[in-house]
């Protein structure tokens, strides 16, 4: 069974930093496409960052230059370092995986709240 568990959210002032973690079980993050999404009440989930098995990385325009997605193969964990946070970054952040070729998934974590105060 595939499970994604996020942690690292919290309350931070504008301009501050947080690092989100996504610990995976049932898959190896190195071989899977891993994403971070975020959602605010009343809006659909927004794709924030993606890292593929080949190491390709993409970011939403709104976070380019401020957020960094990475993975630790030994810990089987994906991270998102968030710097220069803005109030508009306030959302519930979700870890997600599409799986890999031959084993397609659509698995979500439970989410972690990030609140940025002005």
Query: Topology as H/E string?
Result: EEEEEEEEEEE
Beta-sheet strand percentage?
over 45%
Mean pLDDT across every amino acid position: 97
Given as residue ranges, the uncertain stretches (5+ residues, pLDDT < 50) are none
SSE blueprint:
Blueprint: E1 3-7, E2 10-13, E3 18-25, E4 33-39, E5 46-51, E6 57-59, E7 67-72, E8 77-82, E9 91-100, E10 103-108, E11 112-117
Parallel strand pairs: 2-11
Antiparallel strand pairs: 1-3, 3-8, 4-5, 4-9, 5-6, 7-8, 9-10, 9-11
Summarize the structure.
0% of the residues lie in helices and 57% in strands. The chain has no helices and eleven strands.
Question: Could you explain how this protein is built, in words?
Answer:
- The chain has about 120 residues and is mainly beta.
- The chain is built from no helices and eleven strands.
- The protein has strands spanning about 5, 10-15, 20-25, 35-40, 45-50, 55-60, 65-70, 75-80, 90-100, 105-110, 110-115.
- Strands 2, 4, 5, 6, 9, 10 and 11 form a seven-stranded mixed sheet that branches.
Features:
118 residues, mainly beta, seven-stranded mixed beta sheet, 11 strands
